[in-house]
Specification:
single chain; mainly beta; SH3 type barrels; OB fold (Dihydrolipoamide Acetyltransferase, E2P); 3 domains; 0% helix
């Protein structure tokens, strides 16, 4: 068992029967009363951030999380199939656990977090940016660029993304997986 003195950013703890990571913390020692630790913790499954105060010295249950690299193979409805590139072991993850499933293309490398005590997957994080090919978009009109105007474009995964007017079919675009927005055009 650890105490609040062992707090650090990124530490995974069990709180109220759920897994949480510490986003930030601050030890506070007021002039009157006992010391305490003010924290912001993030629920691993839901992503909800919560402010919580722990009395200084209270026992906490630290949990081990292991990150493993997997390669995306294919999806079968809501189940996504991944393969460990070291031992070729396959695992299946529900669509809800993936940060941006609509931007996931075959062969993409992802990081899957496992709770080591139960050896169960708890989250699947994609790279921050993915490069995808535009398969369909309306042609842009010349001279219509006085303002930052965007048009819809369908990428190779089937997702629709807003892109600038100068993007054409066949172009490679870099997309931010956190927001699903266009970032830049990639030179081939």
């Amino acid at each position: 068992m650890a105490t609040t003195a062992d707090f650090r950013n990124g530490l995974c703890i069990e709180h109220n029967g759920e897994l949480w990571t510490i986003v930030e913390f601050q030890h506070v020692k007021p002039g009157k009363g006992p010391a305490f630790v003010r924290t912001k913790i993030k629920n691993i499954k839901t992503g909800r951030v919560l402010s919580n105060t722990f009395t200084s010295g209270v026992k906490i249950n630290v949990q081990r999380i292991e990150n493993r690299q997997y390669q995306y193979l294919y999806n079968d409805g809501d189940m996504y199939h991944f393969m460990n590139t070291e031992n070729y072991e396959q695992t299946f993850i529900n669509k809800d656990m993936i940060s941006a499933p609509r931007l996931l293309k075959e062969g993409e490398m992802v990081q899957i977090s496992y709770h080591t005590e139960t050896d169960s997957a708890i989250s699947c994080d994609m790279p921050t940016y993915v490069t995808l090919k535009v398969t369909y978009t309306e042609p842009g009109e010349k001279g219509n660029t006085a303002t930052n105007t965007f048009k819809d474009a369908e990428v190779e995964t089937g997702a629709t993304v807003k892109v600038p007017l100068f993007i054409n079919e066949g172009d490679l675009v870099k997309i931010d997986t956190r927001s699903g927005e266009y970032s830049e055009r990639v030179k081939s």
